[in-house]
Amino acid sequence: MDRRDPFPRRTATPARLLPWIAELAKTLPGLVRSYLPGQALDPRTRERVILAVTEVNGCRYCAWIHGSWQDFLGENSLVDADEALLGYARACAEAGRPLDPAPLTEVLPPEAVASVRATVAQIEVSNLVGNTVDGLIARITRKRPLDPPNAVAEAAVVAAAIPLAIPMLGAGVALRAASRLAPPVPAPQMPPAGEANLLVHLLAQLAPTLLANALLRSAVIGSPVVLVVGLKAGRTTATVRAGRGRLALENGISPDVVMVVEGDVEPLLRLASGQVLQEARNLRIRRP
Amino acid sequence: MELKDALAAVVGPTHVDPAGDRHLQDVTENPPGHADFVVRPETAEEVRALVVLAHERGIPITPVVAGYNVAGIAIPRQGGVVLDLTRMNAIVELDREAMYVVVEPGVTFGQLKAFLDAEAPELVYTYPFAPPFTSVMMNALLDGLNNLSLPHGAMGKWVNGLEAVLADGDVVRTGSGGVVDRWFSRAPLPDLSGLFVSTQGTIGIVTRIALQLQPKPAYRRRWLAFAEDLGAAYSVMRALARAGSFDDCGLMTWPAAKQLFGATRDLQKSDDEPFAYLMIDITGASQGELDARVDLGNHLLTENGIEQSFDADEVARLVPALAKMAELPTTLDFLLDYPGGGLTWVGSYGPGDRWVEGARRGMDLLVEHGFPPFLVSRPMDGGHFYVLRFVANFDKGDTDEVERVRTVMGKLADVVLDHEYVPYKASADAAGRILDRADPGFVRMLERVRDAFDPDRRMNPGRW
After folding, report:
1. Searching chain A, which residue's CA lies closest to the CA of residue B258?
2. A105, B326, B338, B363: least CB-packed within 10 angstroms?
């Protein structure tokens, strides 16, 4: 960094961008996979990696957009991003270039390693561009030297990024609004503790995690019609009534359920880990 | 000299107190006892001096640490002095090569686990479903069951040797440490350590004990599995035990799950709920070994009618109530904080071929007396024997309920004996029932041993 430049953050220059763009080119399939259903890197972990890099680089736009994304996805106690993974992301950000992914290969399968590398590269580029916006603003407001050649270069970077940045900011606004508007998870109404069966108890404990996603919470709890769904995990059955701001759990399959979701207990639990589409394959839906 | 002054002369005045509730009763239905003083020695030499003092004055001695034996074993029955050993909490020796640790009576499970994690992470002890503040030594001397009892047996088997103060103040050593300076084994000597196992402090006050450690496998997997009936539960426990490839297979029946989720009374099982929950531990020195055992475990579960199993660690992270079961030692507050504070059980060891029948009869008895059919079990020592433990929580302030629980515990002791199971950590009542059925030669020999070691019956009187 130029010692004479009072702007403290890294901005996009060809020298800084090139290694990350090369990394992105090498790992592009991993990046695509990280946003697809059944991904090797679950969305909450992906967002934690992104925020770890962003914290090092100090890009306020990325922090805001991906903070919105994380709020939208909600907390999940099952997602426990490995310290090795976050450490790798931070180390890359601090070095300003992609590092040897050997520490990742010890703890992650190859496809997940590729996704992590791609995610780090993608957010690095975004962070550099975001910081460039602030750098350019600082020049215009004379908080740093104008330096016309560099100002022009930065303006070019910002102009090139606008087609991507505007939808991203729009997505951030939408995600944040969805999180704010989503109803909270109500305390489930259930039979007395001694009568409630194991599935009802498990569902009551899982409810905050299962409904962590703001969109899902809005659709289920905020539904104007009470949805009545039967669940059969192993041999144990329960009925879930959700909607109009309430959540009720009952033993057994009620006659008024609109459908019954069947499966083993494990897929049901994994649903709560956010692996909805992956685990949905292991569940069966039938008419009551 | 007054007794209090004489006791204070040994341990200092701040470590002698009138006996209070903490030392005169416990969580069980056993009535409160009485004692004159509680004395808290810090060293084996102080224990010896106190025992000599008691011997000279003919005073009964009742040793205690945490007092959570759940059988009333540490309630003083004939007055005298309670010897509270909690201050003797030194981990005296760790032998990483011979894999043993020597501890004093006050060393707790939590303390030992923290010590091994820091000082010998390649080794592990075995832990019970008991709070971390309970005594490692007492659990071993009372022949309890822990989470490595499937491959390595009841806790008395883990004792390599010990040092004890006998009723007349004589200090003795047993096991290899009685001959050489290492406590590597009880073999190949006359097994004098066995005199102190399950005799509930009637032979002497143990001041240090050498306990085996085991290598800690690098890879571990834990499952929670559901069994739908007693037959399936037994067949899978038997299959896992006989495979010789699994570390643990603990069983609890459905009331445990209800209580875990906060229920206390009026427990009802839905027809479609699992009958019992199995906690299965699998380890391996390598990923390959673990994977092979996991494959074998899956095969055995399926073959024995277990339809549901899943990763216990993952569930524990997701369902906070289950986290209490994930790592031992643990405080099962749903048992210890039950409204009214009462907790009791009859636990027993016996042959597998009577397990189903004994379990069914014992659970029926609990229900007949107004208690949920709460059963705990596990195969022991490679499947040579099994556990039948019938558990009841109750309100200690409700005299009718206390009487009911007392009645059912007595009947349960008879039921297990009827099925060739023998109560461990036997309460005074259960010990009486054991001796009533015992071979006369067994009773005579026990009497002769006690006559030899404590002719006045001053050592933890009221037991056996």
Report:
1. A194
2. A105
Which pTM was predicted?
A: 0.86
Angle at B19 between CA B18 and CA B22, to 5 degrees: 135
Q: Which two tokens stand for residue B315?
A: 């569930």
Neighboring chain B residues of A78 at a CB cutoff of 8 Å? 314, 317-318
B298–A contact, CB cutoff 8 A: no
What is the three-class DSSP state of B331?
A: coil
Question: Which residues in A lie closer than 8 A to residue B269 (C-beta atoms)?
Answer: 197
Angle subtended at Cα B390 by Cα B234 and Cα B72, rounded to the nearest 5 degrees: 140
Classify residue B82 by burial, with Cβ atoms within 10 Å: 0-12, 13-18, 19+: buried
Q: How far is B254 from chain A (nearest CA, A)?
A: 9
ipTM of the modeled complex: 0.86
A264 inside 8 A of chain B by CB: yes
Q: Which region, left, alpha or beta, applies to residue B329 given φ > 0 means left and ψ of -120 to 50 means alpha?
A: beta
Residue ranges making up the domain that contains B56: 3-84
Q: Tell me: the pLDDT tens digits for B5-28?
A: 999 999 999 999 999 999 999 999
Task: Using CB atoms, pick whichever of B262, B264, B268 lies closest to residue A195.
Answer: B268
Boundary (domain end) residue, out of B33, B67, B84: B84
Residues B250 and B356 in one domain: yes
CA B248, B252, B254, B260 torsion-angle sign: negative
pLDDT tens readout for residues A223-249: 999 999 999 988 899 999 999 999 999
A78 and B318 within 8 Å at the Cβ level: the answer is yes
pLDDT for position A1:
47
Q: Which domains does chain A have, with CATH numbers?
A: 14-180 (1.20.1290), 198-286 (3.30.1050.10)
User: Are A236 and B317 within 8 A, CB to CB?
Assistant: no
**What whole-number distance in Å separates Cα of residue B62 and Cα of residue B80?**
8
The closest CB to that of B310, out of A209, A235, A266, belongs to A266
Number of domains into which chain B is organized: 3
| DSSP H or E stretch at residue A243 | strand A236-243
Instruction: Identify whether residues B204 and B117 lie together within a single domain.
Output: yes
Q: Given an 8 Å threshold on Cβ–Cβ distance, is B273 in contact with A78?
A: no
List the structure tokens of B253. Answer: 């029946």
Nearest to A234 among B264, B308, B315 (CB): B308
| Alpha helices, DSSP H, located in A59-147 | 60-73, 83-95, 102-105, 110-140
| Residue A218, token pair as written in the block | 């809005």
Q: Which residues of chain B have a CB within 8 Å of the CB of A272?
A: 318
A235/B272 Cβ within 8 A: yes
Q: Tell me the per-residue pLDDT of B218-269, one tens digit each, with 9 for 90 and over.
A: 999 999 999 999 999 999 999 999 999 999 999 999 999 999 999 999 999 9
Q: Which residue has the tokens 């037991």?
A: B463
Q: Say yes or no for a CB contact (<8 Å) between B318 and A197.
A: no
A228: three-class secondary structure by DSSP: strand
Do B342 and B409 sit in the same domain of this protein? Answer: yes
Percent helix, strand, coil in chain A (nearest 5)?
55, 10, 35
CB A251 within 8 A of CB A241: no
B204: which DSSP letter?
A: E
Nearest chain B Cα distance for residue A264, angstroms: 7
Determine phi and psi for A188, rounding to 5 degrees.
Answer: -65, 140
B273 and A273 in contact by Cβ < 8 A?
Answer: no
Boundary residue ending a domain (B30, B64, B84): B84
Q: How far is CA B11 from CA A206, B38, B49, B294, in A?
A: 54, 11, 9, 54
Domain CATH number, residue B202: 3.30.465.10
Q: Tell me which residues of chain B, numbers 171 to 230, contact chain A at a CB-CB cutoff of 8 Å.
A: 226, 228
**Residue B107 and residue B121 share a domain:** yes
Do B223 and B211 lie in a common domain? no
